[in-house]
Design goal:
By secondary structure, the chain is an alpha/beta fold. It is built from 10 helices and 15 strands. The strands form 4 sheets. It has a 6-stranded mixed beta sheet. Strand 9, helix 7 and strand 10 form a beta-alpha-beta unit.
Length: about 375
């Protein structure tokens, strides 16, 4: 077996295929939402997305839709748009915007059909090529773990979907502006909840090993890391760390900074919680916000992160983003969409990725 440290050196030495361009991005707009339209217009202007790659459709202005609503208001018109514009294979990245519905309601559990809209759209490529995917449970992500593979069609029959969203328009404008200023500098902050051999802890340890030691802040004690400066990435257990009590850790995020955490419901909503709200036990009704007492993806964006992952419902630990794939890929120059989706084991599941898909730190010096 190759030692992990040797593997890390070998991976760093390999050429990384960088992401594609604005020509490969489709922006999905809820024409019924002024916020969605404003975000799309700002992003298209700043990134130079071709206007022919902007799909405008009226949709319900709600975070949760039924499967029938998803099919009729999102999937079906998007499929028509992609086919009539000759974009089925040219488009690699789909960007959803605030007020494009977030979650498809359904049954829960490992074999349920609840899913995020974004992860369902990731599997949409197969549907459009005559291979409709099954709905119950997750589907294996063919791009998962492919560290050195260039993402392209038809090699990988999925779309990489990211979402431009936050608590308000200034949050989303911040994502876009910071993505354009991203540079390969700063520290990767990795915070375990304990020093045991929980699989999540081991993934975090491996991520630290695969990154340059002088770029890593690593802690496996019971304390929670706070007030870190020059943060370019943060990985932790979020509110599932029993010692984590505060929503704002006081981090200074650099432009391009990304966040991932092992939390089941952190993307359950992008409505802003009251300033007084904080985490608590499930048994405390005062700790619930949007049905859960857990940490929020939107908080990290509001605090200055450029990208973050999350889950609209229980994904189970084995299908959360793997930091040992995500952080090294992003460090070596993969764009945000490819870095995240290479680290996510499943599509047609609960995951979302917030951020500009083209955001990249560039290759390290």
């Amino acid at each position: 077996m190759i030692p992990i440290r040797v593997l890390g050196l070998a991976l760093a030495a390999c050429a990384v295929a960088l992401g594609q361009t604005a020509q490969n991005v489709l922006v999905l707009v809820n024409e019924s939402s002024p916020t969605s339209r404003a975000i799309a217009e700002y992003y298209v202007h700043r990134r130079g997305i071709p206007l022919s790659n902007v799909c405008r459709q009226p949709m319900p202005v709600t975070e949760i839709v039924t499967r029938a609503q998803y099919d009729s208001a999102i999937a079906r018109p998007l499929g028509v748009f992609l086919k009539t514009h000759g974009l089925l294979d040219k488009i690699l990245y789909i960007v959803t915007t605030s007020d494009v519905p977030l979650r498809i309601d359904g049954t829960d559990g490992m074999n349920g059909d609840t899913a995020s809209v974004d992860s369902e759209l990731a599997a949409f490529y197969q549907d459009l090529h005559g291979h409709p995917h099954r709905l119950p449970g997750p589907l294996p992500n063919p791009f998962f773990g492919r560290r050195e593979a260039a993402f392209r069609h038809p090699d990988f029959p999925i779309y990489l979907v990211t979402r431009l969203t936050g608590y308000d328009f200034p949050d989303v404008r911040g994502i876009i502006d910071r993505a354009l200023r991203a540079k390969n500098r700063g520290r990767f902050v990795i915070d375990l909840k304990s020093n045991d051999d929980d699989p999540g802890n081991n993934w975090l340890r491996t991520a630290a090993i695969l990154l340059p030691s002088d770029r890593v802040v690593f802690d496996e004690s019971d304390r929670v890391l706070t007030n870190q400066t020059d943060v370019i990435a943060y990985a932790s257990w979020g509110s599932n760390d029993p010692h984590r009590k505060q929503r704002d850790l006081g981090f200074h995020f650099l432009p391009g900074a990304i966040v991932t955490e092992f939390v089941s419901t952190d993307a359950r909503t992008f409505r802003m919680p009251p300033a007084s709200w904080t985490y608590g036990p499930w048994s405390d009704p005062h700790a619930l916000f949007a049905g859960s007492p857990q940490s929020m993806t939107g908080d990290y964006i509001h605090q200055g992160a450029t990208g973050a992952s999350g889950h609209v419902s229980e994904p189970w630990l084995i299908r959360t983003p793997r930091p040992d794939y995500l952080l090294p890929a992003y460090y070596r120059g993969r764009n945000l969409a490819e870095s995240y989706w290479m680290s996510i084991p499943a599509v047609s599941w609960q995951n979302i990725v917030v951020g500009d898909p083209l955001c990249s730190l560039g290759k390290p010096d």
